[in-house]
Specification:
Radius of gyration: 20 Å
Bound molecules: nicotinamide-adenine-dinucleotide
CATH superfamily of the largest domain: Dehydroquinate synthase-like - alpha domain
Order of helices and strands: EHEHEHEHEEEEHHHHHHHHH
CATH architecture of the largest domain: Up-down Bundle
Shape: globular
Strand content: 5-15%
Number of strands: 8
Length: 354
């Protein structure tokens, strides 16, 4: 039976498609940008040049210094650049690291943001910002952080290496899986979550086989967008908590960690979320969704054990302690011994049986 629910949608415009980047100037002008700053990581500087050319006179420069985990000193340097160049808008091209820098500046200035995502991480659909100072990552939520416009251009994802596409896509699936049992979930979010998971589950193996498969790339980017909407609209649970703790405690890589942890966090929550498991059985076309997500990781060539990402075995207790010291809401209560088993299974890389 349909239960009562609250549905809120984000005030954000999306332009999606092959070569959608051609819309960038019009979209920047629609946001009243006259002196836009294009942000990227050093590796994506060439893409930033391309966007700068498309922006024409609307572009006031490129700032290719975005850094993983949004360090506050990098943001401060960018803020000085924004002030001294009279920047009136931010155009971020890249993955979550670049989007993070744009959000960090917007949080401090309320400048409009136009984002062109090049991975499947999903930060562009949220009003959340994680930033790092003195080795500690903290998260803030604020309406100024949510980008105004997102252009999903499939072209920019064609060069994303197959292995990175696989883990980035599973990172996106994790957002949708947790939306299926979020305390603030609703039937509309569940629709987005199911179709997002379906799209990525079918397209990621095809991308592994042929990274230039435009149809699979389009499907994956569409799925990533749906999963990102789930992240932006619902609370996350044990899976995201474990990934935040692992990233913060052992500096483990973001998408790889999500890929390893997801099957184990889902297997733990499975007995408490029958409706989500029914949905996952349907979209993943399997009786054992957690095991299928583990198999998907192997299929796209990802590592499936935290020990292979560099986590030491004696770190397991630390992860359990930090997770339980300040837990997120979770559909199944968190018992220390059971969580230790979850972390141990993720560390060892054993395939769950649900
Ligand atoms: P990333 O932005 O660091 O990109 C990963 C790597 O891929 C980088 O080396 C980048 O240069 C490269 N890359 C990006 N696009 C490419 C392309 N098209 N072709 C080739 N190489 C490309 O990582 P990410 O996984 O996109 O994002 C992770 C970061 O985003 C983390 O810091 C995470 O905390 C944050 N994040 C935040 C939110 C949020 O809502 N605040 C949501 C998801 C992720």
């Amino acid at each position: 039976m349909l239960e009562s629910f609250v549905y809120k949608s984000a005030p954000l415009k999306v332009v999606f498609g092959l070569s959608a980047k051609s819309e960038v100037r019009g979209e920047a002008e629609a946001l009243d940008m006259k002196r836009a700053l294009v942000l990227s990581t050093p590796e994506q500087a060439e893409m930033a040049e391309e966007i700068s050319d498309l922006l024409g006179p609307t572009c006031a420069g490129i700032y290719p210094h975005a850094t993983m985990h949004t360090p506050v000193d990098v943001t401060n340097a960018a803020m000085a650049h924004v002030a001294s160049n009279a920047i009136d808008g931010l155009v971020s091209i890249g993955g979550g690291s670049t989007t993070g820098l744009g959000k960090a500046i917007a949080y401090r200035t309320d400048l409009p943001q136009l984002v062109l995502p090049t991975t499947y991480a999903g930060s562009e659909m949220t009003d959340m910002l994680g930033q790092t100072k003195d080795g500690i990552k903290t998260t803030v939520r604020d309406p100024r952080i949510l980008p105004e416009t997102v252009i999903y251009d499939v072209d920019f994802t064609l060069g994303l290496p197959a292995w990175l596409s696989g883990i980035s896509g599973i990172n996106a699936i994790a957002h949708a899986v947790e939306a299926l049992y979020a305390p603030d979930g609703n039937p509309v979010l569940s629709l987005l979550a199911k179709d997002g998971i379906r799209a990525l589950h079918t397209s990621l193996p095809r991308i592994t086989d042929d990274p230039s498969d435009v149809e699979a790339r389009t499907e994956a980017l569409y799925g990533a967008w749906l999963c990102a909407m789930c992240l932006g609209a619902s609370r996350v649970a044990l899976h995201h908590k474990l990934c935040h703790v692992l990233g913060g405690s052992f500096d483990l890589p973001h998408a790889e960690t999500h890929t390893v942890v997801l099957p184990h966090a889902l297997a733990y929550n499975a007995p408490a979320v029958p409706r989500a498991m029914t949905a996952l059985r349907e979209v993943l076309d399997t009786e054992t969704p957690a095991a299928e997500l583990f198999r998907l990781a192997g299929r796209v060539g990802a590592k499936t054990a935290l020990r292979d990402l560099g986590m030491p075995e004696d770190g397991i207790d630390k992860v359990v302690d930090i997770t339980l010291a300040n837990p997120y809401w979770n559909p199944r209560s968190l018992q220390s011994n059971a969580i230790r088993e979850v972390v141990r299974a993720a560390w060892a890389g054993t395939c769950p049986d649900v």
